Amino acid sequence: MLLGIHLTLLIGPTVAVPAPPLLTDAIQSVEVTHGDEERSGFQITFQTGRGGPLALLDYPLMSNPLLKTFNRVILIVTFNVMPRVLIDGIITHKELSPGTEPGTSTVTVTGEDISLVLDREEKSAEHPAQDETVIANKIILSYAQYGLIPLVVPPLAIDPPIPVERIPVQQDTDLDYLVELARRHAYVFYVLPGPTPFTNTAYWGPPVRVGLPQRALSVDLGSATNVSSINFRHNALAPTLVSGRVQDRTTNKSLPVRTFASLRVPLSLRPTWLTDQANVRRRQFRQTGLNASQAFARAQAEMDASVDGAVVAEGELDTLRYGEPLQPRGLVGVRGAGFSYDGLWYVKRVTHTIRKEEYKQSFTLAREGEGSTTPVVRP
Questions:
Q1: Is 96:105 a contact under the CB 8 Å cutoff?
Q2: Residue of 6, 49, 101, 359 with fewest CB within 10 Å of its CB?
């Protein structure tokens, strides 16, 4: 329990139930990581000892059935009376670290979010007459028993396959296949916990670069400062222009393929791909078996994905001073860092670290260049 913050742990083999005081009182720290390119993960550390007759054979927490691997874990953080599902996942590892003094031993359970269930079995499957949008919805809905709710955004270029011409074939786990389909369009696939316990939103679509930004991360602004540390990196080699030719599958003609600009919603005034285009890396388009629209879409997706990490910011946030947990996979404002790095950013990754009387977050932000596109951000 923290000032203004309450942590609730639900855990169990099939249906997660509120953890008993034996477990909640033993929690030493909680760490949860969310990102848009990988599964979210969690780690819970419990303090334990071997006092009493029940601990003659083993540490009580090591034999506790609630901490068995493959049990389901739901963490809910209530910040200023507003509950948020922090993670809905499955335990995959358990570790014991014996201490040198009584009561200093720890048991640590580590796990991944509920998308783990999509990655358990490799499949050989065909998806006749189904484009990527239909396939994504179908796969996600097949896991409805885990509370997965599909949120699928159709790409700009959709080419429904005609069975006499081609049939999409899956030779991978459902998770890897969804990620592969997403990358074709510079999309991402991840699972968001919530909005309520036992439900999860499976998002397949572009990185969310629109909407209401979160409260600003304030740097070097005296009493308004809420960032403990932050640093910025500009990688001028990240953006990539793509050009080449493709043998159109439909007309059998050789057509040029070339990208000129990123179609991402701009977050910076001076995109790296535009301000230094003479030195931007260029790559040959070498994919085959596509029609013209597919080829242009694949080339554009490759360029869009390359510009995302041209400028990256990493830092640490005092969540208590910030006033609410920073949410990943959306927008946030930065102020106080100067014109080059102020403005709107995409929150790519967030790690929550919760201990007694402490709630901190490390974060990774990204955008395509320098310079703010807005004179003010949400304070």
A1: yes
A2: 101
Residue 93 bridge partners (DSSP): 110
Split at pLDDT 50, 70, 90, the class of 51 is low
> For the CA atoms of 180, 297, 243, 183, what is the dihedral angle to 10 degrees?
-20
Task: Specify the 3-state DSSP secondary structure of 1.
Answer: coil
Residue 59: φ, ψ to 5°: -65, 135
The pLDDT of residue 54: 58
Model confidence at 59, pLDDT cuts 50, 70, 90, reads confident
Using the predicted structure, report yes or no on whether residue 1 has a pLDDT greater than 60. Answer: no
Over range 86-92, report the average pLDDT: 97
Omega before 195 cis (within 30°)? yes
d(CA 272, CA 225): 29
Question: Does residue 363 carry a pLDDT above 50?
Answer: yes
Give CA–CA dist 208/188, Å, rounded: 10
Other C-beta atoms closer than 10 Å to the C-beta of 254 total 9
Q: How confident is the model over 271-301, as pLDDT tens digits? A: 999 998 888 999 999 998 888 988 999 999 9
* CATH fold group of domain 121-205: Phage tail protein beta-alpha-beta fold (3.55.50)
Q: What is the pLDDT of residues 137-146, one digit of tens each?
A: 999 999 999 9
SS3 54: helix
Which ranges of the chain would DSSP assign to H, the alpha helix? 21-24, 132-141, 174-183, 272-275, 292-307, 319-322
Beta strand pairing call for 41-48 and 358-367: unpaired
What is the reported pLDDT for 23? 94
pLDDT at 53: 60
Residue 206 token pair: 């572009």
Q: What is the pTM of this model?
A: 0.93
Indicate if 214-234+310-372 has the same CATH topology as 5-115: yes
269 class by beta-carbon count within 10 Å (0-12 exposed, 13-18 middle, 19+ buried): middle
**Architecture of 5-115 per CATH?**
Roll (2.30)
Q: Answer whether 347's CB lies under 8 Å from 361's CB.
A: no
Question: Which of 2.30.300.10, 2.40.160.40, 3.30.870.10, 2.115.10.20 is the CATH number of 214-234+310-372?
Answer: 2.30.300.10
Angstrom distance (rounded) from CA 171 to CA 159: 20
